[in-house]
Write a structure and sequence with these properties.
This protein folds into 2 domains: 358 residues, Outer membrane efflux proteins (OEP) (Up-down Bundle); 71 residues, Outer membrane efflux proteins (OEP) (Single Sheet), CATH 2.20.200. The protein is elongated and about 135 Å long. The longest helix has 67 residues. It is of the alpha+beta class. It has a 4-stranded antiparallel β-sheet, with no helix packed on it. The two termini are 67 Å apart. It is 60% helix and 10% strand.
């Protein structure tokens, strides 16, 4: 038992061991705007934010990306590395224990310094030794606790980095899928227009041969046909490139990318757009965004590194104990009288290091300020992207409505222009202008639909994964 005198001696040591030099972490204060309540933006409990589009093909592509995307695999490996580093830092807080055994046999020379006539009874010396060694550095000033704190903060940051990559990959898959659907729609429009131009070119070629139209009219129709054919070829080229890009995102094999088989579900104009989207920024935006959590984890680690650097100014106290058995006969190694032990303690204190320790402290302080600026920027980016996404969602909806009206008007104009051309009321050039305008407007409408879908993806990403709407 410990007597009162021993308790008085140990108490200040225990209290000293509980202290940690360096600042404790506090989240930086940021001038925040008034944020909205959570009735429209509730906690998104699943990573599958893309389900808001209710597209079977998109769902399958996202699931495959989650399983096979190379960037995600790297991020998961980084988590394992950070977890192992945290385990190493935790182990530094605990005593280390090891066992060893050795045996030796020495034949002493009569002419050597180890031979002493009359004292050395025999020239052949055998010795067996088995020991257990325990060592422990008392963490009086929190050097290892701060290092453990930094390692765990790095693990938190690495996990958030993985979530950030996951969000980026799934967002890119969705946008690439919508680009495929948009290119499909544009290609269908272009092919339909090309077919009409080819039929018109055949008619005007026949008329020109039979003297019913001028060569100029024939060349104009042929030129318009060639122009649309170029559009078709460009779209086919773009479609092939986007399909291979999707193959990389979902982790497809090289063979699959060569085949380029991506199933198609709904046309872009039939993809579901959420009828309601959030109107304001959620109050927990800083906890939802993985990039902000990643930056804060790095800030926590940098703060802990300041304490670790400060602890280098203070002494290190280590304890080492050895217990074992020694005998000149292996059979008698554990017999009574063969036991041996040793205990020692050591103190080391830096006296002069040429300014190295002070420089390490300055570096830790500067690194904290650098990462603090990065954290503040991540918060700024979070609000910027969220505000931009909210505005983009509203405006793109209005643009789609406007483009739809434009296409409907041009379709009506095209039918009227064809009747007038057949009646001789307008010339070929007027009809070609209307056709060209209709083709351009239909392409722009598809682009607007794609932008509307992308705006929803951007909003999901800006909100840290998505949102759920109470019904």
């Amino acid at each position: 038992m410990l007597n009162p005198k021993n308790i008085r001696v140990l108490t200040p040591l225990i209290l000293l061991a509980a202290c940690e030099v360096g600042p404790d972490y506090e989240r930086p204060k940021i001038d925040m705007p008034e944020l909205s309540a959570q009735e429209e933006i509730k906690e998104f409990a699943t990573e599958k934010w893309w389900n808001v589009f209710a597209d079977t093909t998109l769902n399958k592509l996202e699931e495959r990306a989650l399983q096979h995307n190379a960037d995600l695999k790297q991020a998961i490996a980084n988590i394992d590395i950070a977890r192992a580093a945290a385990g190493v830092a935790t182990a530094d807080l605990l005593p280390s224990v090891g066992v060893s055994g050795e045996g030796s046999s020495t034949f002493v020379s009569k002419r050597g310094k180890n031979y002493m006539p009359g004292l050395s009874q025999k020239r052949n010396i055998t010795d067996y030794l088995g020991t257990a060694v325990a060592s422990y550095e008392i963490d009086f000033f929190g050097k290892y606790r701060r290092a453990n704190e930094a390692a765990r903060a790095n693990l938190l940051s690495t996990r958030a980095a993985k979530e950030s990559i996951l969000l980026s990959v799934t967002s890119e898959v969705a946008k690439t899928y919508f680009l495929l659907r948009a290119l499909d729609a544009k290609l269908a429009i272009a092919k339909r227009t090309l077919k009409a131009r080819q039929e018109a070119c055949a008619v005007y070629k026949s008329r020109f041969k039979n003297g019913y139209c001028t060569e100029l009219d024939h060349l104009r129709v042929e030129s318009e046909m060639s122009s649309v054919k170029t559009v078709v070829l460009d779209l086919e080229s773009s479609l092939a490139k986007v399909e291979t890009a999707m193959g990389v995102l979902i982790g497809a094999s090289p063979r699959e990318m060569v085949i380029r088989k991506i199933s198609k579900d709904q046309a872009i104009e039939k993809l579901r757009i959420p009828s309601r989207v959030p109107k304001g920024i959620p109050s927990d935006i800083l906890l939802r965004r993985p990039d902000v959590l990643q930056a804060e984890g790095q800030l926590m680690a940098a703060n802990a590194k300041i304490g670790e650097a400060c602890a280098a100014h203070f002494p290190s106290i280590s304890l080492t104990g050895v217990f074992g058995f020694e005998s000149n006969s292996l059979a008698k190694l554990f017999n009574s009288g063969s036991d041996m032990w040793n205990f020692n303690g050591g103190v080391s204190l830096p006296v002069f290091s040429g300014g190295k320790i002070s420089a390490m402290n300055d570096a830790a302080q500067a690194n904290y300020r650098k990462i603090l600026a990065a954290y503040e920027k991540s918060v700024q980016v979070a609000f910027k992207e969220t505000l931009d996404a909210l505005v983009s969602n509203r405006k793109n909806r209005e643009i789609v409505v406007s483009r739809t009206r434009q296409v409907n008007s041009l379709k009506r104009s095209y039918h009227i222009a064809r009747k007038q051309k057949d009646s001789g009321l307008i010339g070929l050039l007027d009809l070609l202008d209307v056709e060209r305008g209709l083709l351009s407007a239909e392409m722009e409408l598809v682009g607007a639909l794609q932008n509307q879908l992308n705006a929803v993806v951007d909003l999901c990403k800006a909100l840290g994964g998505g949102w759920s709407i109470s019904r």
